[in-house]
Amino acid sequence: xxxxxxxxxxxxxxxxxxxxxxxxxxxxxxxxxxxxxxxxxxxxxxxxxxxxxxxxxxxxxxxxxxxxxxxxxxxxxxxxxxxxxxxxxxxxxxxxxxxxxxxxxxxxxxxxxxxxxxxxxxxxxxxxxxxxxxxxxxxxxxxxxxxxxxxxxxxxxxxxxxxxxxxxxxxxxxxxxxxxxxxxxxxxxxxxxxxxxxxxxxxxxxxxxxxxxxxxxxxxxxxxxxxxxxxxxxxxxxxxxxxxxxxxxxxxxxxxxxxxxxxx
Length: 264
Description:
two-stranded antiparallel ribbon, 16% strand
């Protein structure tokens, strides 16, 4: 056990006595820090099964688990699969807002643990579909969606990079935090539909030329906090494909149904 981990474990009872653990969502008392109370866990919505193996949309037409939905079959997505920890509702929205805009970076381990559970490291089933190599086995790289430097300086951190770093610690996968760069600052995407988002983000991302050797032929898990219409991930995937990335999967904490995120 690392010295830092040993110190943390040894001091935890003292810290909990001075600062009693509270639910990260409602503030209620907890037995252990860094989690949610039972009531708040019950407020979260999770992707169900059977669902499309690529876009994770639930099947309502009797299709078997692990199959592809009609939309993905007609127009295959740019990615090779999505793993969303939760569906976007009021509970996940409050967590995202606190993490992304409220400066509560201490939420990163909690959100990342839920994402890691959906990633299912090692071969196994994900939403009814068999993953022969696991989502992070076989040399997959974790790449966060980047922020523009002005937004990064204003916020002080990139929430997607924090999630990617936590996932790396949980899974042992390598993270390339600067694999992508945001070439220009874009307007807020809240309230915009898919086509409008795609237009705003067209050409906004590029692969970092200093990471070209690392990305050529690589398999990448693109990490973001929220997946809305897919415009941001598609723009990032286009940049990664241009750099020679072989496969791209998307991992997020929350996925928005309908592809429109309310303006906040």
